[in-house]
């Protein structure tokens, strides 16, 4: 409990006493007040997102927990009108010493308490990479619906901003000042080279963000991804547009130009690894459009919530552009952002 924020502690204590002092009567299923989407801050760092919906009378949901993809929950059920339990499992195929294959399942459990349009709770489950159990605390709030797609033809634009000067990292900094920076300027390009030692512990390189923060905008840039590498461009620090060597791969929400794990490109428009590619991205009213190498592959798609690696849970606040630096080699150039008025 060390360093646990006092306001969150008070929030959780208030929830704990909610039903102790107020009679909690059963609520009709049709009035399930957990239905909808919730954006979540994890204590200690990280953003999560939960969607709760009902299909033919059966409760279901999707969950994003800090990193990775938006995935279906394993189970979800209401305990009472103010308490929801969500479980998420991960399966791994293992071979026993006798050569037989078995499935190893790991389960994490969220216990959520709600008061009006705010939630708080815990996530428990096995630790990653070592023995033991992890316990995380979180608090969140209900998100309003995304709403209809905007009319892109009616947009008005401000003055273009050249974010990278081709000479140095002026206007950029690592998100975590304590993380090593793998980005440097080489021949007028912004290159990331997260070199790892041949022997020793893995080095976790930092992500590079703009000093400036933006609301809605159009972003144009060029990117070059070597074979087998990947990165990402985060819009307002919330939504990752995938940058990856996916040439020749089947369509997938994790391919080049996708709104990561949320919107699958409509066609394969990426070039082979090692070639410069153009990206033209528009973010407006929580909708994303991506034109990759001159082809529109994501068309005004709703961004229901943050993607893995988001640095903010507030989908209405201004935020930076950030480039993923902890994955692999990549080079960027001609990065120009034009605000939408």
Describe the structure.
This protein has 341 residues and is mainly beta. It folds into two domains: 6-143, Lipocalin (Beta Barrel); 152-339, Sandwich (Jelly Rolls), CATH 2.60.120. The protein is 4% helix and 45% strand. The protein contains two helices and 22 strands. It has helices at residues 6-16, 18-21, and strands at 36-42, 47-55, 58-65, 67-72, 75-80, 83-95, 101-115, 118-126, 133-143, 161-162, 172-174, 183-186, 189-192, 208-210, 217-224, 230-235, 239-244, 276-284, 287-292, 295-302, 322-323, 330-339. The protein has a nine-stranded antiparallel sheet, covered by helices on one side. Strands 10, 12, 13, 15, 18, 19, 20 and 22 form an eight-stranded antiparallel sheet that branches. The chain has a five-stranded antiparallel sheet with strand order 11-14-21-16-17, with no helix packed on it. The chain is globular, with a radius of gyration of 22 Å.
Q: What spatial form do the alpha-carbon principal axes imply? A: globular
Q: What is the makeup of the main sheet?
A: 9 strands, antiparallel
Can you name the CATH architecture of the largest domain?
Sandwich
**Beta fraction of the residues?**
over 45%
Approximate helicity band: under 10%
Query: Can you tell me the number of structural domains?
Result: 2
* Total beta-strand segments: 22
Q: Briefly, what CATH class of the largest domain? A: Mainly Beta
- Name the poorly predicted regions: 16-30
Order of helices and strands: HHEEEEEEEEEEEEEEEEEEEEEE
CATH topology of the largest domain: Jelly Rolls
Structural class: mainly beta
Separate helix tally? 2
CA-to-CA gap between the ends?
Answer: 44 Å
Q: CATH homologous superfamily of the largest domain?
A: Exo-inulinase, domain 1
Mean pLDDT: 90
Biggest sheet strand line-up: 4-3-2-1-9-8-7-6-5
Radius of gyration: 22 Å
